[in-house]
């Protein structure tokens, strides 16, 4: 019986050790992934989720903040680093107006501060070990400053890329940002609707712990992408999940595809009926011949 008791105690010890290790989180990180997104695309995705959803979009139709994410090389974390540091709206009341403009909660039928609270809990609490980003005010205020200094909308417009419903290549978008900022970004898209259009969604920039722009490095971020979405250049690669076969659409307002979709469905139905008619005629002919 003694050996069984010893065995049981060893099992419990190693199980407890494994459990403790699993709950220990490495909150260290190497760089910041600063993400701006295009509110029209965000809105289209949000409205696709439910017909009851509505959107808040800045009258200036500018790119806004999605998040500022401390990131460890080779991972998409850390996340939720300090559950004891709760979100407190009073800490950022002095910049609430700028947050509404530059860090807009596009999802209109959700509480105004819910987006900020979510980003703070998931990512902001992981930035506390860097003094310039410590605390809610510093964390959110730095993102506002970056948005003003690195306006994606202005950069794209300066290179002839406008939100007018035109399609652009991934090369055009990458080159516009790289030539202006001198660093490689990450370009993200959303696939929308039955037409399967590739919509420009996010531009991600990388910053080191000195809060200086750096290249978003393929070696650091390869885990984010399948090889098929790494666009090879002579002097490197473009980090993107956008389609390389279709133009990337950049809309300035919410497009309506209902008629197009109905027409496509009608055409498909008509083609199906035509095929059925041909099959029926062929079978009828076989019966007649026999």
From TrEMBL:
Active-site feature positions: 66, 119, 123
Gene Ontology CC terms, in alphabetical order: endoplasmic reticulum lumen; extracellular region; lysosome
Glycoprotein among keywords: yes
One family name in Pfam for this protein: Ribonuclease_T2
Lineage: superkingdom: Eukaryota
GO molecular function terms attached to this record: hydrolase activity; ribonuclease T2 activity; RNA binding
Catalytic activity, as annotated: an adenylyl-uridine-RNA = a 3'-end 2',3'-cyclophospho-AMP-RNA + a 5'-end dephospho-uridine-RNA; a guanylyl-uridine-RNA = a 3'-end 2',3'-cyclophospho-GMP-RNA + a 5'-end dephospho-uridine-RNA
Subcellular compartments: Endoplasmic reticulum lumen; Lysosome; Secreted
Chief localization: endoplasmic reticulum
InterPro entries noted in UniProt: Ribonuclease_T2_eukaryotic, RNase_T2-like, RNase_T2-like_sf, RNase_T2_His_AS_2
GO biological process terms on file: RNA catabolic process
SUPFAM superfamilies: Ribonuclease Rh-like
CDD domains: RNase_T2_euk
Manganese keyword on record: no
Keywords of the record: Disulfide bond, Endonuclease, Endoplasmic reticulum, Glycoprotein, Hydrolase, Lyase, Lysosome, Nuclease, Secreted, Signal
Family (UniProt): Belongs to the RNase T2 family.
Protein name per the record: Uncharacterized protein
Taxonomic source organism: Oryctes borbonicus
Lineage: Eukaryota, Metazoa, Ecdysozoa, Arthropoda, Hexapoda
């Amino acid at each position: 019986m003694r050996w069984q008791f010893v065995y049981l105690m060893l099992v419990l010890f190693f199980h407890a050790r494994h459990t403790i290790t699993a709950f220990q989180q490495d909150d260290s990180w190497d760089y910041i992934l600063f993400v701006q997104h295009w509110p029209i695309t965000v809105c289209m995705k949000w409205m696709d989720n439910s017909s009851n959803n509505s959107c808040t979009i800045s009258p200036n139709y500018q790119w806004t903040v999605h998040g500022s994410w401390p990131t460890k090389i080779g991972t998409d974390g850390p996340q939720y680093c300090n559950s004891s540091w709760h979100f407190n709206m009073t800490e950022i009341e002095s910049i609430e107006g700028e947050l509404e403009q530059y860090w807009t909660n596009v999802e209109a039928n959700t509480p105004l501060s819910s987006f900020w609270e979510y980003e703070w809990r998931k990512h902001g609490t992981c930035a506390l070990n860097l003094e310039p980003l410590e605390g809610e005010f510093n964390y959110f205020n730095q993102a506002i400053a970056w948005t003003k200094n690195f306006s994606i909308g202005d950069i794209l417009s300066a290179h002839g890329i406008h939100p007018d419903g035109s399609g652009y290549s991934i090369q055009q978008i990458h080159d516009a940002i790289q030539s202006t900022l001198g660093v490689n970004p990450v370009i993200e898209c959303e696939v929308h609707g039955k037409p399967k259009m590739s919509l420009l969604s996010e531009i991600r920039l990388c910053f080191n712990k000195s809060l200086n722009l750096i290249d978003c490095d393929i070696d650091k971020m390869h885990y984010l992408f399948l090889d098929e979405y790494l666009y090879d250049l002579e002097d490197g690669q473009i980090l993107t999940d956008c389609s390389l076969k279709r133009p990337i659409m950049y809309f300035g307002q919410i497009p309506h595809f209902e008629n197009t979709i109905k027409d496509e469905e009608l055409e498909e139905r008509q083609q199906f009926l035509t095929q059925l008619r041909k099959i029926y005629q062929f079978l009828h002919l076989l019966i007649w011949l026999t």
